[in-house]
Amino acid sequence: MTIAHFRPLRWALLPLAALGCAAIAQTDPDAGNGLNIPADVVVFGKNDPALRKPTAVVNGDIITRTDVEQRLALIVAANGGKVPAEELERLRNQVLRNLIDEVLEIQEAKGNKIDITKQQIDDSFARVSRNFKRTPEQMSAYLKQIGSSDESLKRQIEGELAWNRLLQRRVQPFVNVSQEEVQGIVDRLNASKGATEVHLGEIFLSATPETNEAALANARKIIDAIKQGGSFVAYARQFSEASTAAVGGDLGWVRPEQLPDALANEARNMSVGQLAGPIQVPGGYSMIYLMDKRQVLTADPRDAVLALRQLAISFPEGTTQQQATEKATQFANATKTIAGCGSAQKVAEQLGAEMVDNDQVKIRDLPPQLQEMMVNLQVGQASPPFGSAREGVRVLVICGRDDAQAAAGANAETIMAQLEEQRVNMRARRYLRDLRRDAVVDYR
Length: 444
Known about the structure:
alpha+beta; rotamase; PPIase_PpiC; Chitinase A, domain 3; Triger factor/SurA peptide-binding fold; four-stranded antiparallel beta sheet; peptidyl-prolyl cis-trans isomerase activity; 14 helices; 11 strands; PPIase_dom_sf; globular
């Protein structure tokens, strides 16, 4: 069983001894502003302000308050630094639970002779840095700036790598998906051509009868934080107990029928960009975010790839809304004359507009407000102007278009991989639950 106990008895003896010494010391009742402080003070023990006090000891490994605060800083930064004060303490407690799980995962990996090398961690750190458009050195400076550290992020990376390697060795080989199962799904997909597929993100929190109320309350607070502008991906990475936490909770493309009934019912009725939950599922609660939708084995116009030319004008600092509107109107009238990318260049020169080309833009990757508009434009046509008084105004001209093609059929390899991942995920949850049950955790 997981044990949260007080410090051992030998730690309790020192204050008693100190109390005995203080009782026989000479005191001056008038000294110390009435505090009755002994004149010949003897300090028992040393208080080092640089000492990192432990918050928990997990099977002998220490998690310090510094560890917790630096990991918490990552979450705060991911939410734009705007986390209500009352939310911070809940996040702090959740971070501590995550760090305990992380320690257990690393310990179990080492117990199975799995060691993640410094080079592997550094390579992953470099990839994360590139995702933030930074070098590793710039990423380290940024982490320090927000109150975290590269050591904290690298520790999280080590935990994820170790746990994934452990699952590959101890769980994946024992997960079986038969060809008959896969073929059955392929047949159903082919028979349901045109049905809806959804691209989902998930945050899963486990719950037992004893922890159900706390898990539900925690899930509701996460939902509220995300609705107030928090990053779903950041919350998934830090709080989700599913194996997809490492990829920000991304479940990939699935049909609602492949999901547990409770999730399937929600997913069918959600709109792109919508968040749903908490939803009770076997073993706990899920929160799902609908990233996108598409039709099974059917060409989606939003998968068309465009060659675009963008014309943009900016407004000098101090431009009023009225001035911006007037200039935008002139820009709109001029761009109405565009008939192809050749004439777009002439218009750009006349207006002094900046021009940028991109030949590989999928309509699906554009902001939702532009997707429907661009689907209906033909080669040579320009979009209506869009933008803001702060960022300027721009138009997009379609120079070329490769329309999406319908899929040839259901991909058996992809379906098998999805089924395997679901089963690995389920066993991974049980594995971590058993590690928690057997751990000795001393909360300080």
